# Entry
Amino acid sequence: MPVAAKPATDLHLRRTSGIPGLDKLMQGGFLEKDVYLVTGATGTGKTLFCSQFLWEGLQKGEKGIFFSLEELPQDVLHDAEVFGWNFKKYIDKGDFIIKYEDPFEITDITTVVKESVKKFGAKRVVFDSTSIFGMVFEDEHELRKRLYQLIKALKETDAVILMTAEILEESKGLSRFGVEEFVVDGVIVLNYLGVGDVSNRSLVIRKMRRTDHSKDSFILKIGKSGLSIEKEKTL
Ligand SMILES: Nc1ncnc2c1ncn2[C@@H]1O[C@H](COP(=O)(O)OP(=O)(O)O)[C@@H](O)[C@H]1O
Ligand SMILES: [Mg+2]
# Structure
């Protein structure tokens, strides 16, 4: 007798985002072993989103690594303190690493990243941001190849991976180099109109494999405890 196929979601474990209101829009959270792109223009909250995701993991005993390619670790940690996230405590405990990688200094970032993730046993990984690749590789073919290799390598780890891509304000695309959005398992788009109050921020889940996710655009707020999704949808 044929065995009924298991629902795809059973194959993986979902990990909560730490952002109130978001998990219920994506069947409970991000899937283990999957790579997600958090994309948006500058100042839309991408780095904050990633810090909140890592903080959530630490509260649940899941080790995390933050690869920062743009901001210095002390700046990322300082920004997080505002929301009450004391990452230093977890660095001392050996559960959290924040690494500044100078992309110009590393010839093979893929190997460095993959090996650190495996060795540390990270369950959550952030790579902020992929946009820096544009500064390192002049040749577009080479750039896409390297980015593709990095994403593929990260997919082979057991962690949930969030990568950020900073898109230009006027861009219609979802990623900076047009390769990331096809290779990743999910894309979350953050928007900021840049006028007036916090309600001008929004979030859309553009793609999420193996997940019946919401397709609407929701109001995103930055409060005392970080980001949260409001019930109201935007147009
Ligand atoms: N404590 C805070 N309260 C309200 N808004 C904040 C706070 N901290 C940061 N922001 C907002 O978040 C933006 C930066 O978010 P960030 O995650 O660094 O964006 P990105 O990584 O997309 O460039 C700031 O420009 C500001 O508008
Ligand atoms: Mg940032």
